[in-house]
Amino acid sequence: MFIGDGCQIGDRVVLYPGVYVGEAAQIGEESVLYPNVVVMNRCVIGKRVIIHPGTIIGSDGFGFARDGAQYVKIPQVGIVQVDDDVEIGANCAVDRAAMGKTWVKRGVKTDNLVQIAHNVTIGEDTVLVAQVGIAGSTEVGSRVSLGGQVGVGGHIKIGDGVMVGGQSGVAQDVPPGQIISGTPAFPHREWLRTQAVIPRLPEMKRALTALEKRVKALEEKMTEK
Fold first, then answer.
1. Domain hosting residue 145, numbered range
2. Given a cut of 90, is residue 113 above it in pLDDT?
3. What is the DSSP string of 123-137?
């Protein structure tokens, strides 16, 4: 276990073997960090937070700028703030902000293998199921549910109460209260109807080809007259 200079560790915090807490980090009372959790410098963990093994809070955001044929690293000087009563699964990554903060608000629950990129905000009581990936500077509202393997593009807003079906890709803003699925994501009921049609596409294609041939034959017959 390592605890850096200037850390603030609250009462009744439990730090398991292999935990790393960087310089000037803060961990609120009654939080539990399981083995091999990393909290990087200056990041803030609230009260009653549970972080499962192997998760990293405050790794650098993925920020690079192209300079000719090479990529140059953009310094990531912000922090991560995790509010009270959050639970983060195993082997997750919450990247520090380029500037300002990546913010996981009160009551958020994440499954394992979730990626939250730099400058993302996750609203209160939101649930992120396994293998969700959220790109930089996106705002996710409160009480949102993102199913397993959902991918969310950068610089968009997902409104309060939105539900996104598993393996969907979200590339545009989503108004509050929507239920969406698919890639690109669209209303869930329409997606269900689409899924019902897909297995029939080969049959429909054969029928359409046969119909085209019949129409062509009729047109040729009419032309002969």
1. 2-187
2. yes
3. -TT-EE-TT-EE-TT
